[in-house]
Each structure stands twice: as C-alpha cells, then as structure tokens.
Amino acid sequence: MRGGDNGPMKPIVTNRKARFEYAVIETVEAGISLMGTEVKSLREGRANLTDAYAVHDGGEIILKGFHITPYSHTSQTKLNPRRDRKLLLHKPEIRRLIAKVREKGLTLVPLRVHFNDKGIAKVEIALARGKREYDKRTKIAERDAEREMQRALKDRTRPRR
C-alpha cells in the first residue's frame, strides 16, 4: 500500500482544473487534519478536490470544499463530507503564505492529495494567481496545435500498404 522502495505513491485525488484556471507560482506540501474513517475513505480514493480552496483564519490555514465521501463500512456517526479541514503547517510557513496572499492578491489552491512514504495523508497546495480568459484560450490553442503536429508525424511515419 505504501510507496517505500517503489518511489512515491500515486496521487489519490488531483485537481486537474486548477492548473488550467490558475498560474502556479509555488507549491507547499501540508498535512491535513482528518477524522477516523476519512482516512479509510481516502485510501479507497473516494474524494473530490474540484471546488476546494484554502483560506487563512485566525493564524491557521483551512481547506474548504474538499469532499471526502463517508466510508461505507462504518457504524460511526456520519461526518459532513464537505466540512472544513485544518492544514498542518509550521507557524513560519503559515505566516509567509498569509503574507503573500494578502500583499500580492494570490490565492491558495489544492492541487493533489496523496499518502507519503509513512502512509500519512498530505495535500499539495499552490500559491497561485488566476489566469485571464485570453491566457486560457492561448493554452488551449497551443495544446490543439501540439496534438495536430503529433497526428501529422504519426501519419507520416506510418508504413503505407
């Protein structure tokens, strides 16, 4: 189940939309405060980062909108799947991130959730700036042009009958 000798484990959940919507400036790995069966649910890959974001609140960084589907094989009372979860960072790191968010108009966006070598759930959050509409269109055009080029090369190298 762990990464160990095989390298780091694959991400449990990724926020693919985040890299399209935001220009990532810096990334930070943080621990996440979870309750009982949420870890089991994460191990099953039953989570969604799509609408998640991080905010600072009273000297802490809180992850909001992170959906973890309740674990199916439990008798424990059901937790709110979208409850706010505290991110575990060192105080100087929190202060630095809060200062950057305040002064430069940046935002904190979760990119992925994974388990480290020790089996501890970690969240990779990004200090990011929102992209403009024309930046997104340019990115789409570049991606389409790259695809067309790859298709043309593939057709050209294919043996003819």
Characterization of the model:
With 161 residues, the chain is an alpha+beta fold. It is built from 4 helices and 9 strands; from the N terminus they run βαβαβββββαββα. The strands form 2 sheets. Strands 1-8-9-2-7-5-4 form a 7-stranded antiparallel sheet. Strands 3-6 form a two-stranded antiparallel ribbon. β8 (107-115) and β9 form a beta hairpin. The radius of gyration is 19 Å and the shape is globular.
- Kindly give the count of domains: 2
Low-pLDDT residue spans = 1-5
Largest sheet: 7 strands, antiparallel
The CATH topology of the largest domain is what? Small Protein B, Chain: A
Which helices and strands appear, and what pairs or packs with what?
Elements: E1 13-14, H1 16-21, E2 22-32, H2 38-43, E3 47-48, E4 53-57, E5 60-64, E6 67-68, E7 85-88, H3 91-104, E8 107-115, E9 121-130, H4 133-157
Antiparallel strand pairs: 1-8, 2-7, 2-9, 3-6, 4-5, 5-7, 8-9
